[in-house]
Amino acid sequence: MEKRELYAVENNKVVRKRRFCPRCGPGVFLAEHKDRYTCGKCGYTEFKNKK
After folding, report:
1. Average pLDDT, whole number, for the chain?
2. Binding residues for Zn(2+), per the UniProt record (predicted)?
């Protein structure tokens, strides 16, 4: 994945497409998997809600 895929431009502003890691802070994105979000730096994991 390239860095340009993590951002989008809307109304002349840069918008981040991914969530940040709550432990590591801004600048470290969470990877999105089928059933969870994970941080590659610290290992933080959030599971998605099953519907």
Report:
1. 91
2. 21, 24, 39, 42
